[in-house]
Design a protein that fits this description.
The structure is a homodimer. Chain A is of the alpha/beta class. Chain A has twelve helices and eight strands. Chain A has an eight-stranded mixed sheet, sandwiched between helices.
Chain lengths: ~280, ~280
């Protein structure tokens, strides 16, 4: 199988490491605008070689787009030359705008997906082999993908040990706003609220596991997250609104010293973990 | 050394496990209002025996208070019978109210401390031996403690591998509001904002590491956290205000589609991790 990976950062690099273990007779060819990344990816052995031009992927079995969501939209429009058998899988964190912009002529080639995994690190050196194992991947609007492509994607991610969910792209974007995008906005806000204090160092010196966990994703790439907030703007604003309603309620109960209601409200929050 | 541990949950139980490894010739006696907890603590071997009455701790070398902060205030007032050599260490997450309420006659016995560690779990079965190792402990208003007591506390927590910080109780409470108490309010709010959606299960099915990390402390005990929010009310409200200012700013930038400013704002948040 010939696999092209566009974007050799955490997601693309980790994908390369993971499939290498699962397929024999594999050629992995990388592509990245960032020359430093292609060099690093070669040095780390993530890819067998790098492509100079996207057109080199013409007859590839699989092309994976592991780049920020705006770049996915732009790149997928340039892939109209691929063979009918090629499967294109994008890893974008938003899905509606991407599926809307896929050129009609290659719509069946594309499997719009969102692997619900990642770390706060980025670049080829952040790649880890087990990033995908045991995690969820969402396939969106799968009925628009060709039978061959849907099958290949299903087999591939099953082999990687992922749990596959199917969802409408709009529904995905709503859910992703709550489970991922808005929490990133919170983490960035938390980090900045501490950084704005008179002596952030003295505060941060006291950080225990709770703060570290909550501020971890505030380390994420502003580049990538700018794109996500832009592409999923409406849903993110809606999720922030819903979060703020809860925080306002919590604040009001503390202000009014209504400890009984606060107790019930916290108990309700505890119940999340019966589901999680 | 004879050690009394009042409160046999996560903090008290883990403390018992940790000191057992560091001191020979140790008797650890537990005390807990909850009979189930004392039974479990005995079964798990956390303590050698349990006390029926606080007065049994009269001549003990060390008494540790690992109970919710309101209970610390109430209990410490009942410990006026202790010998002049006894060291009383409380593990409360808030400090100002506690130091203000220590009876004058035993003020030198008390070392007001806050170990910056924990997990979202509770009860004796949650106890783990390495909860304290490598973590920060804050001693507040240490100049009010007796020389003997301050020395014992320093030696004890150094042996457990903790990093000791010294701080004014009021300053501690302000910092703790930012680094611990307000983040708990956020985590509870995040959990409830998802639980309030039409289909929380469908959303939570997609949860990756980011959401899991951010909602982990929403599992914490409403009992314990009600007390903390009550005792540190002013500072918690202030920290929530400061957080909300950041979230409002983030929301406004997304609403106005001011992506450049959003980028800079996220970059600033990234810098937290140069300090953390």
């Amino acid at each position: 199988m010939r696999v092209g990976i566009i974007g050799l950062g955490l997601m693309g690099g980790s994908f390369a490491l993971a499939i290498r273990k699962k397929y024999e007779d594999l050629e992995i060819v990388g592509y990245d605008h960032n020359d430093q990344h292609t060099l690093e990816a070669l040095e780390l052995g993530l890819v067998d070689r790098v492509a100079e031009e996207l057109s080199e992927f013409r007859d590839f079995d699989l092309i994976v787009l592991a780049i920020p969501v705006d770049a996915i939209v732009a790149t997928i429009k340039q892939l109209t030359f691929v063979s009918p058998k090629t499967t294109i899988i994008d890893f974008g964190s938003t899905k509606k705008k991407i599926v809307d912009e896929v050129p009609e002529s290659i719509r069946e080639n594309v499997v719009a997906s969102h692997p619900m995994t990642g770390t706060e690190k980025f670049g080829p050196s952040a790649a880890i082999e087990n990033l995908y194992r045991g995690k969820v991947i969402v396939f969106c609007d799968i009925e628009e993908s060709g039978t061959h492509q849907a099958k290949l994607a299903r087999e591939l991610f099953s082999k990687l040990g992922m749990k596959i969910f199917y969802m409408d792209a709009s529904e995905h974007d709503k859910h992703a706003a709550y489970i991922s995008h808005m929490p990133h906005a919170l983490s960035f806000s938390l980090a900045n609220s501490v950084m704005n204090q008179e002596n952030p160092k003295a505060i941060i010196a006291l950080a225990g596991g709770g703060f570290k966990d909550m501020s971890r994703i505030a380390k994420s790439s502003p580049n990538m997250w700018g794109d996500i907030f832009r592409q999923n703007r409406e849903n993110v604003l809606e999720a922030i609104k819903s979060f703020r309603k809860e925080l306002d309620f919590c604040e009001e109960l503390i202000r009014k010293e209504d400890w009984d209601s606060l107790y019930s409200w916290m108990q309700k929050a505890n119940r999340l973990h019966d589901i999680l």
